[in-house]
Amino acid sequence: MAFLDRGNAGPLPCGRMPLSRRLGLWFSQSPVQGLCTAAVLGLLSYPAAARAGKLDLELLNLCPGSSRTLSGGQGSECGWVGRGGDGKVTGAQPDLEGETRFRSLMSELGMVMAPSIVTPADTIGFAGFQISAELGLTQINNKAEYWDGVKGVAPQNRLADRPAAWLTTIGMFVRKGIWLPVPSMEVGAGVVHLLQSQLIAYQAYAKFAIHEGFQDWPLPSVAGRAAVSHVTGTDQVRLDIASLDVLASKAFGIGGTFRAEPFGGWSYLMIKAKSGVIDATPGCDGFLSNSGSAGGAFCGPVRPDNDLAANFSFPDQDTIIRTRFFGGMKLKFSAVFIAAQYEYIGAGRSRDVSKTSAGARDGSEKQARVSLSGGFDF
DSSP letter string over 173-215? Predict the structure, then answer.
């Protein structure tokens, strides 16, 4: 359940939407979501997708606690909350360190949910169609302070229950070869779910093979690819990731039965994170407190205490930039294939330069990702 100050002082509903309702929404929304409806149905069968988990975002955890005199006595609240001499809230604003933690968390989470398309440079052909299931394991720097920003971490004891060092995602994808707007094109779409959370990413890509199909020549196939990922399942942030990839591969036969296709490439990734509205004093009902009633033990020492001014958002920042190298192998027998891919993701070093003063720096460290894919080529 998610909480924000509102008139009836209750929680905002975050429960499971009926299946029929969700199907209607998907068909009425973007073409990308329409393409991957079958993949969505597969993920809906996984029960954890509808339950809040330890990896769901809780960005208030990025705020250090500060001892204050509150209505219930001495207590701790977010240090970004400003109070006047009379104890009333004057506002709430993250400091530079808080913005840096937000940027670093979005950088590493963005790589967890980024497009990771386990395919070689060759397209599947104009008449080709592919459906696949994928499993991903992405390394994070789970002991870093910015990973406090998930529900599983208790601010009072941040070392007690850290996220795992490798986060697991599952996904389903469909791909189709096309001739338009130019030959040697391939498009695909799918969904990816981060386990132990409600986060789901809708993904799509387009690939253009610059050179392919000359299997008897000692030349690799070469392609360019563009992909996007839109993350849903949280009101804490809007997260979008785009990638531009160049890749090469070379196919060869094994015993006249199997087709092996090693591949590798490089990616340039752009991550855009926009903060939602966050209640910096969740233990105080702002509407009750502002009306002069008791809003809870964590309200200010006077009534009304202007608690609604404690709602805040992280300021918008420049796009986060990451790069990665990847390599893998696809093995195909008849219409069945399996593929594996390893990615090395360099540390994030981009800085928010949208402000005249020094902006937040991406403090994320290097990461790695291992992906496994299997399915059918028709």
Answer: EEEEEE-SSSSSEEEEEEEEEETTS--EEEEEEEEEEEE---T
Indicate if the pLDDT at residue 189 is higher than 50: yes
Local confidence band at 67 (pLDDT 50, 70, 90 cut-offs): confident
User: How far is 173 from 35, CA to CA, in rounded Å?
Assistant: 9
Task: Report the predicted TM-score, pTM, of the whole model to 2 decimal places.
Answer: 0.84
Residue 57: strand, helix, or coil:
strand
Q: Is 173 exposed, middle or buried (0-12, 13-18, 19+ CB in 10 A)?
A: buried
Q: For the chain, how far is it from start to end, CA to CA, in angstroms? A: 43
Please provide the DSSP assignment of 304-339 as one string.
S--GGGGEE-PPP-PPEEEEEEEEEEEEEETTEEEE
d(CA 121, CA 284): 55
Tell me the CA distances in angstroms from 40 to 110, 179, 226, one per residue in order: 20, 27, 22
Give the integer Cα–Cα distance in Å for 353 and 112.
25
Residue 34 has pLDDT above 60, yes or no: no
Q: Which two three-digit tokens encode residue 352?
A: 């928010």
Phi, psi of 20, deg, nearest 5: -60, -40
Query: To which residue do tokens 């253009």 refer?
Result: 208
Q: How far apart are CA 15 and CA 254, in angstroms?
A: 51
Can you give the pLDDT at residue 349? 93
Query: Hey, what amino acid is at 333?
Result: F
| Tokens, residue 114 | 């980024």
| Identity of the residue numbered 213 | G
Over range 54-83, report the average pLDDT. Answer: 89
Q: How far apart are the C-alpha atoms of 158 and 167, rounded to whole Å?
A: 18
- Contacting residues for 9 by C-beta, under 8 A, at least 6 apart: 285, 287, 288
3-state secondary structure of 109: helix
Q: Where are the beta strands (DSSP E) in 118-275?
A: 129-139, 166-178, 185-194, 200-211, 221-232, 237-249, 252-254, 258-275
CA distance 39 to 34: 10
Identify the CA nearest to 191 among candidates 171, 213, 163: 171
